[in-house]
Amino acid sequence: MAHAHSVKRHKGLMDWLTTVDHKKIAILYLVAGGLFFGIGGIEALMIRVQLAKPMNDFVTAQQFNELITMHGTTMIFLGVMPIIFALMNAVVPLQIGARDVAFPFLNSLGFWTFLFGGLLLNLSWVMGGAPDAGWTSYTPLSSSTYSTTHGVDFYTIGLQIAGLGTLIGGINFLATIITMRAPGMSFMRMPMFTWTAFVTSAMILFAFPAVTVGLVLLTFDRILGANFFDVAQGGNPVLWQHIFWIFGHPEVYILILPAFGIISEVVSTFSRKRLFGYSSMVFATILIAFLGFMVWAHHMFTTGMGPVANALFSIATMLIAVPTGIKIFNWLFTMWGGQITFNTANLFAAGFIPTFVMGGVTGVMLASAPADYQYHDTYFVVAHFHYVIVGGLVLGLFAGLHYWWPKMFGRVLNEGLGKLEFWTFIIGFHLTFFIQHFLGLIGMQRRVFTYLPNQGFDLMNLISTIGAFLMGVGVIVFLINIAISFKQPKGVDGDVWKDGRTLEWAIPSPPPEYNFKQTPLVRGIDAFWKEKMAGNKEMTPAEPVGPIHMPSPTILPFVMSVGLFIAGLGFMFTNDDFGNSLLNFLFGNYIITGIGLAITFGSMLLRSLFDDHGWHVEPEELNDKGVKA
Amino acid sequence: MTNHDLNDGSAVKHRHRHEGPQKHIIAFVFSIILTLIAFATVAAGGVNIAFTVLLLLVMAVLQVLVQLGYWMHLKDKGHMMPILFMAGGFFVAGLAIIAALYWMWW
């Protein structure tokens, strides 16, 4: 037995720092994403407290700018993206019948770079002020002329490092889905969530390089004295807007597509019906992704691109309503005539559909360029994007978390608390944001830190604030639910909903480290459901029982990310005078940056020089655990 | 033990060796010719500037195709996904660059 040698197994904290198991990385993503989601939520509540009454002085104007900037940045990049990656990691390999992702090492690296990027960004709160130029960080406001603290440097470098993690994750899922599907699982037999994860990963691959370039240019402008966005030196501030939105618009579809996938799975499972119009759903997903790259300038109608550009981008934007509409109707037709179970997951899915439609409708309104001149930078826009991101994505994520929680943790969440969470959250959500449409229409601008009394804003803002706190209550109920669920013993039935359709329900909860004892043979769409309908208790195996090759745990991704963190922090303070010759020497000569990069590249060298042969789970061990395929 | 082919790259190497060197020699010669045409046009001087630029662009595109097709094996079977994603990348990047430049500077 050449590979009977034992691999070093870690326990406790070291296990989590070194793990390359996609299921554990999913939990890491969930915990870290949840933490940042909480921070972003607290920032949101502080914003709403400040705006609860006119001329409020809960925070200063500067603090308010920092709050709105960090709320948006944290929620998008550090809150919901990682939770999406958590679900993709937890579910996609199981849904395609794989034992892990294509590159387990990169999976771990993606997580740790995201985490350290996020920590760097949030470190700004205690290191001289958070970014304050809005989550879009438009130049010239974000240039070193107008934003003199290190806030925007934390934004550019923190997001650069976190974005690296996202890009790595996206490439990993592309490779996984293309190369690691179980025998028989053609592309058109893939579960809808896997499809959306695939398309989202492709969009990450195409969109994130744009923001990488943009952030590099802004970093150069701010730290090295370049002039990309400086008009006085021949630069162009509109260039930033183009680069940001060439990334930024696909980004919102990167966010929403996985939610579409989750809703498709949940609605279909709890209607006990096959997803209506599967192939049109796939087509619509791809079409949304394709069109998503051609509409970025609808964020810039008021920059003076001219009537031709505005008209083209208007039409392209409105076109997206067509594939989105296809999806909405397919979900309705899936539910129609189904035996519907309204548990928490399905309530969130059912709540998602009308809420997202409302966000979509205001989206089409905003797509009309002449009307947009009226809506631009008002609370109407704020209401719109919270309807699609909270009412769409976050409701979808809650549906997905309730649906896959038993699979991830082997424990079910309490239904009573879940329903309480749903109702407080969705009522709070509509209370907060529905009224903001009207605030915008009567002229309240976004990003203002306060307003004068008796303009008709007072009552509506107060209602909005009350709604925000109700959403907070909903999230707290969810946390209580999680805490209670951990009192149960681990190990619910693998097919806990009894109506599981896809491969993840064919294995125990939580799944063993190697997922599938034998790779399953897929004989149709909704592979597990098909076997159940054929009277089989389990999947037909596609291979004999044999030793299973597993990747070794490694600390290197963690160390590489620490290196990037140090390098980023060092680079940021290059031009600072610390009043201390040693510190000035260390930072001014890029020595700290160099040490950080040396750690990262040294780790890469180690990884290249020493082969990781992995280890094997032998058949005897498989049988001990009594796992069915 | 079935899963012990981790360090065994020989299977992969064999598959490529069957192809034989002829096609690669042709591709090599072709890319040299393309390069020579480009250099010669510029070196000769006196050629219309607009024509030179156009010719260089055409030569460059052909060169890229030869490189991708023969050396990156995109012409071989089973490369649908790389082709699809490269085309997607070209499309997105091209669209973004052209549109953004057009609306900013012209």
Automatic annotation (TrEMBL), chain A:
Swiss-Prot/TrEMBL keywords: Cell membrane, Copper, Electron transport, Heme, Iron, Membrane, Metal-binding, Respiratory chain, Translocase, Transmembrane, Transmembrane helix, Transport
Pfam families: COX1 (PF00115)
Keyword Membrane set for record: yes
UniProt main location, coarse: membrane
Pathway: Energy metabolism; oxidative phosphorylation
Entry's EC annotation: 7.1.1.9
Subcellular location per the Swiss-Prot or TrEMBL entry: Cell membrane; Membrane
The keyword Translocase belongs to this UniProt entry's keyword annotation: yes
InterPro entries the UniProt entry points to: Cyt_c_oxase-like_su1_dom, Cyt_c_oxase-like_su1_sf, Cyt_C_Oxase_1, Cyt_c_Oxase_su1_BS, Cyt_c_oxidase_su1_bac
Catalyses which reaction(s): 4 Fe(II)-[cytochrome c] + O2 + 8 H(+)(in) = 4 Fe(III)-[cytochrome c] + 2 H2O + 4 H(+)(out)
Membrane-spanning segments: 26-47, 67-92, 104-127, 154-180, 192-218, 238-263, 275-296, 308-333, 345-367, 379-401, 422-442, 462-484, 555-573, 585-606
Membrane topology designation: Multi-pass membrane protein
Chain ranges of the Cytochrome oxidase subunit I profile domain: 10-523
Similarity field: Belongs to the heme-copper respiratory oxidase family.
PANTHER family cross-referenced by the UniProt entry: CYTOCHROME C OXIDASE SUBUNIT 1
Functional summary from the UniProt entry: Cytochrome c oxidase is the component of the respiratory chain that catalyzes the reduction of oxygen to water. Subunits 1-3 form the functional core of the enzyme complex. CO I is the catalytic subunit of the enzyme. Electrons originating in cytochrome c are transferred via the copper A center of subunit 2 and heme A of subunit 1 to the bimetallic center formed by heme A3 and copper B.
Protein name, as recorded: Cytochrome c oxidase subunit 1
Organism lineage: Bacteria, Bacillati, Bacillota, Bacilli, Bacillales
From TrEMBL, chain B:
Signal sequence extent: none
First-listed, main subcellular location of the protein, grouped into a coarse class: membrane
Compartments it resides in: Cell membrane
Topology relative to the membrane: Multi-pass membrane protein
TM spans (from-to): 25-43, 49-71, 83-105
Alphabetized UniProt keyword annotations: Cell membrane, Membrane, Transmembrane, Transmembrane helix
PANTHER family documented for this protein: CYTOCHROME BO(3) UBIQUINOL OXIDASE SUBUNIT 4
Family (UniProt): Belongs to the cytochrome c oxidase bacterial subunit 4 family.
Protein name, per record: Cytochrome C oxidase subunit IV
Organism name: Paenibacillus vini
Lineage, top ranks: Bacteria, Bacillati, Bacillota, Bacilli, Bacillales
